[in-house]
Amino acid sequence: MQFIGKILGFILGYKLFGGFFGGLLGLFIGHWGDKKLYELGRVSSSVFGKALTRQSLFMQTTFAVLGHISKAKGRVTEEDIQLARQLMAQLKLDSANQQLAQQAFTLGKETDFPLRQVIQEFREACGQRADLLRFFVEVQMQAALQDGNLDPNEQRVLFTIAETLGMSHSQFEQMIAMVVAAQRFRSGYSYTQYEQQSQGGYQQHHGYQQRSNAPSLEDAYLVLGVNASDEQNVVKRAYRKLMNEHHPDKLVSKGLPPEMMEVAKEKAQQIQAAYDLICKSKGWK
Q1: Residues 240 and 182 sit within 8 Å (Cβ to Cβ)
Q2: Share of the chain above pLDDT 90, in %
Q3: Cα(271)–Cα(210) distance, rounded to whole angstroms?
Q4: What's the pLDDT tens digit per position in 183-233?
Q5: What dihedral do alpha carbons 201, 207, 211, 216 form, nearest 10°?
Q6: pLDDT given at position 34
């Protein structure tokens, strides 16, 4: 956490401007200073190198983990590579960043890729900012679900990532439900869960079934992570929290690459659409 500037700002403001209100002014200036130092600061990675910007580390970690998730199924398919290329195109990466992304994706495919170490260093570099880390996990989940299925090995890798970033199993399961609901809400596909017997017992699998393109009210509740029986204040609080967590400008200031702003905007639009549908069905204003 960046707080040195705030403390020094309050003390200096209190002495220079006199009294409590002078301290508050100094606190505000110190907060601005902490923010700028965080944005301009450099971070290190044992895998990607030293003196990186947080945004560069975010981008390279994203594509390396995408490569690792793709390999988790046993082998990286042409479809996996195409999905990574589509993400690069969606982000409108320049040639230099495309090369870094491709190198990171290839690195992530290696059998000795140190996933936990990479994610732990990423967490520390992000200052453990929960909204930025949550967005990172969402990007990985969305990519893993692009083909309509979540392989058990992919799910294990995703949980390792979430756990290393400080999430509980219940938080992980809720996030998966929210992500698949958001994709279903957007694309008009129905998400199902089923169990398949194996030697070790039953394994849970995930998949899509095509349905009408009309987004459902059930999907809208899942997108916000609330229940149909929740009161208006509960739904509104969840909506505001998610909108704040996915605010593109705030995420960029915390380390999100500017190229990913459109991804954040799209997610915010889904949240807004889900909330509007719930309000319309309930007659809320």
Answers
A1: no
A2: 31
A3: 22
A4: 777 765 344 443 343 444 434 444 434 344 566 888 899 999 999 999 999
A5: 90
A6: 47
pLDDT band at 27 (very low <50, low <70, confident <90, very high): low
Say if residues 205 and 149 touch (Cβ distance below 8 Å): yes
DSSP letters of 69-109? HHHHTSS--HHHHHHHHHHHHHHT--HHHHHHHHHHHHHHT
Geometric angle at alpha carbon 171, from 47 and 252, rounded to 5°: 50
- Which pTM value belongs to this model? 0.71
Which amino acid belongs to residue 59?
M
Is-contact 232 282, C-beta < 8 A? Answer: yes
Q: 161-181 burial, b for 16+ CB within 10 Å, e for fewer?
A: bbebbebeeeebeebbbbbbb
CA angle 252, 257, 263 (to 5 degrees): 85
- The answer to whether 44 and 37 have CB atoms below 8 angstroms apart is no
**What pLDDT does residue 157 have?**
94
Question: What H or E segment, with its residue span, contains residue 254?
Answer: helix 248-254
Closest CA to 226 of 243, 238, 216, 244: 238
Residue recorded with tokens 């039953």: 202
